[in-house]
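The records we work with from here on pair a chain with its fold. Taken together, the C-alpha cells spell out the fold as the letters spell out the chain. To see the layout at work, look at the sequence and C-alpha cells printed below.
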Amino acid sequence: MTPDTIEIDGASAYERGHQRGVAIRAALPAGIRTYLDLFEVAGVSAERVRAGAEQTIAATRLWCPALVEEMLGTADAAGVELWQIAALNARTEILSSASGAKPGECSTVVNAAGSPVGAQTWDWHEELSGHWHLQRVRATARSFVGLTEHGILSKIGMNDAGIGVMLNILGHQADRADGVPVHLVGARVLAEASTLDEAIAILETAPVSTSSAITVLSPEGAVIVELSPLGAAVLRPVGGVLVHTNHFLDERLSAGEKPGLYDPDSQLRLGVLLERTALEPLPTSAAELVPYLLSDPDDAAQLCCIPPPGATLGDRWATLATVTMDAAARTMTVSAGSPAEVGTAETVALVASAGRGARR
C-alpha cells in the first residue's frame, strides 16, 4: 500500500508540528500503543520510557529549541502528551537500553563517483508497517522531502540543496537515552544544511547519546558519518563507493561496539555489498542500485528482511521500504516493501524544491 504524503509549510516550528499532528491524528494513537508494547517486550519499563523521553526533550531544547517546539505542536494537534511524541522520536535511544533487542537493520549503497546516487532498505518491525508516511516540508531554511514514521519529524530525506540523509542504526556500549535523538539530528540537517560541509558540521557537533551511521549525499560528494556517545567519525568513499550496514567501520568507534548485537548478520550483509560493488563500476542511475540490495529468503545475508513464521512482536523484522536518492536531481524515490517488490509496487518520486515560504 502506498503511504500518504503530507504537506507541511507552517511559518513557525510549532505551526509545522501542528500541521503534522492534524494530518496523522487518526493513526497516531495506534502507533504510540505499538511502540509502548514494543518497549515493554524489549524490557524497557514505562517509567524508563517516559524518563528517557523527557531527558531527550531537555537535551534537544538546549541544542535546537525549534525541534522541541515542533514536537509540541504535533502533540497538541494530535491530543497526546509531549513526552509521547518525544518517545517516538527517541525510539532508537530508548531501545538502546533494551535487553537483547536489536534497534534496526538497514543496508545502504552509494555511488559517490561523479554525481552521487544511493539506495537503502528500511528494515523495521512489521507491526509498524502501516505507521509511516511521506512528507514535503517547506518554510524551513531548506525545503525537504522524505519518508518518516508517524510522529517522528524526519528519517530519510532530501532537501532542495541536494543534501540527502540515509540512516543505519549502530550499537555502542556507551549508548543511552539522554541525548539528542538521531532522528532529530537528521531533521536538522535536512532543514538547515546547504552544503556537504554544513551537514557534516551539524552531525559532528550534535550531542547524541546513541549510535548511528548517517549517510549524506550532496551534488559535491558523499560521506558516511558514524555517530556514537564517544564522538563522530567521517568515512570517505573508497573507489567512489560507500556501503554500510549496522556495525561500526571506524576502528576507534568499533572498539566500543555493543557485542553480539548484529553479529554476524551485519557483517554478512556488508560482505555481500562489498563483493557486488567490486565486480564492476557502479551504475550512475539510482534505480539501478536497487538490485545490489536483493537477497533470497534462504541467503545467509538477509538484505531483504522477511519475518520468520511464528515470530512475535520484537522479532518480526521486515523491509518496510526501499529508497533511492539522486543528489543532483534533488530527487528520492520510495517503494513500500523490499527491493524484490520494487518492480511490482508503486514507486513514489519526491522532488525537493524551494516552496512557498522557504527562506534563503
